[in-house]
C-alpha cells in the first residue's frame, strides 16, 4: 500500500508541471481570442415617425396644393375646381342609384314563378311590386298586360325597358359635360397666361426669363388642373356606363325568362 501511494506521488510530481503549463497556454489563448474579437457596435435605433411628423407631412401636402392653386391664378383655377366638385357630386349620386337598382334576377324569377303556381298573376304582381329595381318594374308592367296576351306582355316589356334605361342614364350627360369642360377651361387659362407673358415682354421692351416664366407657369398649372379633373371624372363615367350595361343585360335576360314562365303558366292552366 505504501509503495502504491509513493508511486502515485511520483507520477504527480512528474506530470504536474506539464498540466500547469497546458492550463497556462489555454488561458493565454482564450485571452488572445477575446482581445482579437471585434467589438460589435450597438445597432442604431430605428427612427420612429410620431403623429406630429405625420401631421406635418399631411399639412405640407395640402399647403403645396394650396400654393399651386394660388400660383395658377384663382380666376382660372376656380372654374376647373367647380367642374371637379359638381362632376363628383353627380357621379357619386349615379353610383349610389345604380347600386340600389341592381337586382338578383335569378332569385326574383324564382319568386315570381313560385307565386304564379301558388297564387296566380296577382300574387306575382305583389312580389314584383315589393322588389326594388328596374327589373322588377318591368316585370310589373308585363304582368299587368298578361290578360291581353303574351304579345302585349312582350311589347309592354320592351317599351317600359326603354323608359327604365333612360332613367339609368340620367345624369351621365352632366358628367360628360364636365369631362369636356375642365380641359377647355384649363386651355383657356393657358392661352390667357401666354397672352399675359407676351404683354409683359412688350411692356418691358426686353425678353426677360422672369417675365416669361410667370405667364408660362400660369398656363401650365391651369392645363394640368384641367387634365387631372377630366381624368378623374372619366374614371367615374366609365364605371357608371359599365354598371348601366350590366343592369340592361340583366333586364333583357330576365324579360325573356319572364315571358317563358308566363307561357308555361298559361299552357298549364
From TrEMBL:
InterPro entries registered for this protein in UniProt: ExbB/TolQ_transport, MotA_ExbB_proton_chnl
Keyword tags: Cell membrane, Membrane, Protein transport, Signal, Transmembrane, Transmembrane helix, Transport
Segment forming the signal sequence: 1-22
Domain MotA/TolQ/ExbB proton channel, chain residue ranges per copy: 134-252
A Gene Ontology cellular-component term: plasma membrane
Pfam families: MotA_ExbB
Entry membrane topology: Multi-pass membrane protein
Keyword Cytoplasm: no
Biological process, per Gene Ontology: protein import
Highest taxon above the source species: Bacteria
Biased composition (Acidic residues): 25-34
Subcellular location: Cell membrane; Membrane
Transmembrane region(s): 76-96, 172-198, 218-237
Family to which this protein belongs: Belongs to the exbB/tolQ family.
Protein name as catalogued: MotA/TolQ/ExbB proton channel family protein
Taxonomic source organism: Cyclobacterium qasimii M12-11B
